[in-house]
Amino acid sequence: xxxxxxxxxxxxxxxxxxxxxxxxxxxxxxxxxxxxxxxxxxxxxxxxxxxxxxxxxxxxxxxxxxxxxxxxxxxxxxxxxxxxxxxxxxxxxxxxxxxxxxxxxxxxxxxxxxxxxxxxxxxxxxxxxxxxxxxxxxxxxxxxxxxxxxxxxxxxxxxxxxxxxxxxxxxxxxxxxxxxxxxxxxxxxxxxxxxxxxxxxxxxxxxxxxxxxxxxxxxxxxxxxxxxxxxxxxxxxxxxxxxxxxxxxxxxxxxxxxxxxxxxxxxxxxxxxxxxxxxxxxxxxxxxxxxxxxxxxxxxxxxxxxxxxxxxxxxxxxxxxxxxxxxxxxxxxxxxxxxxxxxxxxxxxxxxxxxxxxxxxxxxxxxxxxxxxxxxxxxxxxxxxxxxxxxxxxxxxxxxxxxxxxxxxxxxxxxxxxxxxxxxxxxxxxxxxxxxxxxxxxxxxxxxxxxxxxxxxxxxxxxxxxxxxxxxxxxxxxxxxxxxxxxxxxxxxxxxxxxxxxxxxxxxxxxxxxxxxxxxxxxxxxxxxxxxxxxxxxxxxxxxxxxxxxxxxxxxxxxxxxxxxxxxxxxx
Length: 572
Fold this sequence. Notes:
The chain is mainly alpha-helical. The protein starts with a helix and ends in a 5-residue tail after the last strand. Among the domains are: 2-17 and 94-263, no CATH class; 359-445; 456-567. The radius of gyration is 26 Å and the shape is globular. It has helices at residues 2-13, 25-40, 79-91, 95-121, 123-135, 137-142, 149-167, 172-189, 192-207, 219-241, 244-257, 269-277, 282-294, 299-321, 331-350, 359-387, 397-415, 420-445, 456-465, 482-488, 517-524, 538-547; strands at residues 67-68, 71-72, 471-474, 529-534, 557-558, 562-567.
């Protein structure tokens, strides 16, 4: 088992800080944490005497309020920001520090899943779970992104694991962990972190004909604990800023019952995403779930199967019924899929070196190798499409990836075809190499991507050239550009600010860019102004500058998406 833990840590942490932060999500989460960390390091200041202007707290009280572009931002609870502040204070304001909470949560979810597998089926099942879960496609990718989803998955998995340990004979200690995990899930992403685990528990107990056990999970002391740990921050925010409708109406009902974020998807969207996200172990997991159903089982074995299957089905139904659908929402369902895939290979290895008879089991075993070869092809195709088909410099992608995929299949056919252990080894060794190489390759192309680009190049150049008293403006675009703020370590002027609750935005005049004319006014006042503009609009921008008699020199830095200009030009 220890080797499986080391393997999972290497897979999840290798190359974690190589890529720049992608827009919009990674830049936004990193900037929220950077602003909170900066306010934590600022001595406390008195509240403004103007009642209409809210000043975000500094010093120790900065923990209570997240900000974005310097303004209150309550779209998500602050636990993710707290964790990111902690890791960035240790590692630094960089990609490693920003992504480490997600990677640590992914490793934590793997450890919890391994503990469940050990409880259900022994050491080998646990070790296989530690190998297959981190190499599941969606789990691997989201574990390297700054989002709330992997942290939420860790706490939801912990809550369900604690419930199951209690169900199989655990005492009050398991229930304490259950209520603490539910509280932390609430502080990570709101009621969804509580609703899904409770639904899984209720349905499981009903199917197992033990609904009375629902009364024994410590409601009398668990609910007060949940109210203090999970609801305390919400209550103080609602009392201070009257955010009751914002949290309950817009964030909960608005996201679930209507498409509040512009992400409409068909009802079968998550079903397809689970099949793809669990690759290359999807067919193995489905086979294990189906074969487990037909086996002669003890009541305990049947209960374990019911729990894992209901975990998958309940998550699928709950998220599929939501009107707002984002791909990462379904991540908690990947955990039981990984556990079922591990059970499949546990049975394969238990049947000695020769795979057990049965055409379908052979097909499922070989599917992991075939998918291992196809996953990098699909990832590289996605990357090629992001770069644009008219990029002749990247024509080498197809021969390299195609040759690697063919090599994997040949290796499986001639070396591993007669051994289940060797067949499994091809996937668990080759697949993470492909995945890490593909994710790390994005660092070389991040300036060329049309979407999911990174502001690292522009932000680092801005931090190198701009002085504290210089003005920085994000011009001729409605893009939020939070990554620029993170990399330049400063707030900048934008056409519009963040997504704070209505009525809470009171931006200073020098950070609310009314129009391009404001830049000319700053220049005439003798101030240096750094302008970040879309590269495709630089001709339009220079024409406007010429009409205003504002001199511009050569751009300081240019990427496919954005260009950094300075006015007046730097002295030669």
